[in-house]
Amino acid sequence: MTEPILSLKEVHSHMGQHHILQGVTMDVAAGRLTVLLGRNGAGKSSTLRAVMGLNPVTAGEIRLEGHRIHGLKPFAIARLGVGFVAEDRAVFYRLSVEENIRLSMFKENSRAGERMAMIHELFPDLKRFWHAKAGLLSGGQKQMLAIARAFVNDHKLLLVDEPSKGLAPIVVGQVGESLIKIREKTTVILVEQNFHLANMVGTHFFILDDGRIVHQGLMEELAERQELKQRYLGIG
Amino acid sequence: MDAEAAATQLQDPDGFNMKRLVTWVCSIGIWFLPLIWVDPTTYMVLTVAGVAFGMLLFMVASGMTVIFGLMDILNLAHGALFALGAYTGGYWVLNLLEKWGWVEYGTVMQSIWSLVLAILTGAAAGALLGIIIERVIIRGVYGDHLKQIMITMGVLYVMTEVTKIFWGANPEVVLVPMTFQGSYDIFDVIVGKFRIAAIVIGVLMFAGIQVVLLKTKIGLIVRAGVENREAVQTSGYNINRIFTGVFTAGGALAGIGGTMWCVFQQQVYPDIGLENIIFAMIVVVIGGLGSVTGSFLGALVVGLSFNYVAFLLPKLALGVNILIMVVVLIIRPWGLMGEKQGD
Q1: Cα separation of A45 and A90, whole Å?
Q2: Does pLDDT of B1 surpass 50?
């Protein structure tokens, strides 16, 4: 495996008295779309939030390209090149689509202009409602805006938390297609319950159970391993 | 809502609405009611005075509504920031400049500079105390309105007593720069010079706040931070630093309000903050908590109604303002321009 862009070693996280992450260890290689799988409460979203500095890391270490990032504030981690698409589609409802994108842009230069052109190509609906308030968009459009917000910067790593949640199957397909295009530009870690979407876009996977990594490998191999899917994901 | 419906709604949010039209006609028409009792010249005098009073009220309330709207903090210590602005800018600086003959008998430029320096000093004092209050006191009670009210009310009372230690318990005279003394006679309508200055500064403050909030990146970040702090953080912005900046700006606005108010009243006294926090709250509640435009309109409503009623029935002036606030709270609890909770 090439030098990992993100490395977690024995990461523990507590929320109150709950021991959420119980020693997560994983290396994520650059240029891949890695999927975190597992049942509800396994610690998938908590892992992403710990990487982003939103959940406390009580033991262990997290490194981005070899540099320690645990203990840093979320805004500092974002400035180091980590984009985050939260589970609740964190878009700003009272701001227009354009303002949502402009807010997320660190620099408004020619590079950002290229990214903007890509966003228009990837998400034509956003271009259509460029000056509309984000609160008026449909669920799928909001999700695309959330992804576009994270993608507008030249991030090294994109963390995407359950983009299919609450979306119609046809919209999930559109989100999947956009993620496939995005993985060609940026390393992505995706938390996903929808195995169909995970299988469609993922190149590699980690399975979490009770706050620990229990399996990892190539996504195409997982599709063949019925016992793993049944045991850890509840699908046959 | 599908995309087409959203587009339609954006182009024509409400369509023609008779109820809305009647509301607008009544809202505008009510301001001409005093013409039944007073002649047009007196009406114009009262209107200009009311607008000027409204602008002074806006200066008092703007910082409070900015801090609430953007940071969700009910800051009753705003009265302390206002009082500090009044004492440092309006009283201390103008007295200092008077020693060099700049204020009461100064030239036009000296008068203008006196007022500008007083305002800047008041703003700086308000901003400085604002930073201290936010860092030391408010930061521990983010997200808890009840604690915010209790602790900031405490700060207001403590600061009122501290003011007495520094400047004494008695009212002090505040000087008015020469150029802003007296009044103009425009077709028999008497317009106080300082009232014109108050209107100009009030409108400039409103425009300045709107430009910063709606046209700049920092305004964009602040508006976003009001909606979702976590998402602003993960977008790469230090929300704590931004909110300290907002509180500082709110403090500066209070300081400007205090300076202008005490020059208008030509006196300053320790309870000035306690008294004016009531006006600020009436204006902010009528306009809608958190809406700068609402506070601007609310201040005009309170300023005009106060002046009209004070002329006809002086003892009812403040009572009518409170009555307007009660009526607004019954009909539209979120205020003229506030956002309905749960929408």
Answers
A1: 14
A2: no
Stronger pLDDT, B25 or A39, i.e. the higher one? A39
CB contact under 8 A, B220 and A95: yes
B264: pLDDT strictly greater than 80: yes
Q: Mean pLDDT check: name the lowest of A1-10, B14-23, B105-114, B176-185.
A: B14-23
Min Cα–Cα distance to chain B from A16, Å: 19
Query: Judging by DSSP bridges, how do beta strands A187-191 and A33-37 pair with one another?
Result: parallel
Domains in chain A and their CATH numbers? 4-90+155-233 (3.40.50.300)
C-alpha A1/C-alpha A62 separation (Å) is 18
Q: For chain B, how many structural domains are there in total?
A: 1
Burial (CB < 10 A; 0-12, 13-18, 19+), residue A101, is: buried
Identify the pLDDT of residue A224. 84
Amino acid in the structure at residue B130: G
| Interface residue of B2, B234, B241 to substitute, partner A, most A CBs within 10 Å | B234
Check which CATH number belongs to the domain holding B46 and give it.
Answer: 1.10.3470
Residue B2 has pLDDT above 80, yes or no: no
- Residues in CB range of B316: below 8 A, 6 or more apart: B309
Structural domain contains residue B243: yes
Q: Tokens for A58?
A: 């009580």
**pTM beyond 0.90:** no
Give the tens place of pLDDT for each residue, A69-122: 999 999 999 999 999 999 887 899 999 999 999 999 987 777 778 888 888 988
Average pLDDT estimate for A163-190: 92
DSSP string of A59-70, one letter each residue? EEEEEETTEE-T
Euclidean distance between CA atoms A212 and B279, whole angstroms: 58
Are the C-beta atoms of residues B88 and B168 closer than 8 Å to each other?
Answer: no
| Element spanning A26, H or E | strand A18-29
Integer Cα distance of A71 and A178 in angstroms: 32
Instruction: Find the closest chain B residue to A149 by CA distance.
Output: B235
Interface residue A84 vs chain B (CB under 8 A): yes
Of chain B, the end-to-end C-alpha distance in Å amounts to 15
B21 — phi, psi (to 5°)?
-65, -45
pLDDT exceeds cutoff 60 at A207? yes
Q: What is the SS3 assignment for B259? A: helix
Residue B11 at interface with chain A, using a CB cutoff of 8 Å: no
- The Cα–Cα gap between B113 and B111 comes to 5
Structure token digits, residue A33 = 């779309």
Tell me the residue range of the domain where B212 lies: 39-331
In single-letter form, the type of residue at position A149 comes to: R
- The answer to whether residues B188 and A53 touch, using CB atoms and an 8 Å cutoff, is no
Would you call A12 helix, strand, or coil by DSSP? strand
pLDDT band at B3 (very low <50, low <70, confident <90, very high): very low
Count of beta carbons in the 10 Å neighbourhood of residue A2? 9
Tokens 């397909």 belong to residue: A173
